[in-house]
Structures
1.
Amino acid sequence: MKKQSQKKNAQQFFSSHDIGLVAFLLSKKFELIDLDKTLKSKVLFILKRDDDIDNAIKNYWNFKSSVDAQTYFNQLKRLKNQIFSSN
């Protein structure tokens, strides 16, 4: 049953520890759902899975996409603020 639940979550959500990738996806208007801070050394960013997210990720890793620099910087700053907030 646990495997089925994990598969369903993978269909609904995308998660990553990579702050650069997540800042890029937020700049592309994908939705951040939550941050998992259970591990002290890493934060897991959880985004809502969208039809286009896999293609956006592929383009990011293949250097075939770009975003506005100021938007990216602001998203990166936003993520860092959320990481280091007390909650």
2.
Amino acid sequence: MVAWARSLKKESSNAVSTTVDAPLEWVESVGNLRLPSKADQRLQELMNRNNDGLLTEVERAEMESLVELSERLSLVRAEALHLLGHKPE
């Protein structure tokens, strides 16, 4: 087990430290999270169309959603890798 520690803020702005035990294999699997290949491929297509100025409003919304998901996965992945003492690839 590896301890997953994170500071949580309450509404009163007081910091509370919480530690959660998690199996090492689980933290490693979180560290390997990525967009599925089809979603990543679609994001690349949308970004290319965006660079060419060819996106529709629907495509722009789709791209923004995929970018947000990718960013969130990256942050969670980075935190897991930090706990494991690894650097992101």
3.
Amino acid sequence: MNHQPLSNVPSPCVGVCRMNGATGWCEGCLRTIDEIALWSQLIDRDKLAVWKALPLRRLELSPPDA
């Protein structure tokens, strides 16, 4: 049997699951469809890399200060 250890890195999913056609990111968690689909298979290091990208993606979506 192939058992993977449980991850200590939680999913960023917030239950708002709609893909933005312009960005390719989920409107709730800002992950790509590939990041969402592969989440359970990623090792913690890769999950943390996704988490690290999310604030930068959120900044890209924020309107510039007027």
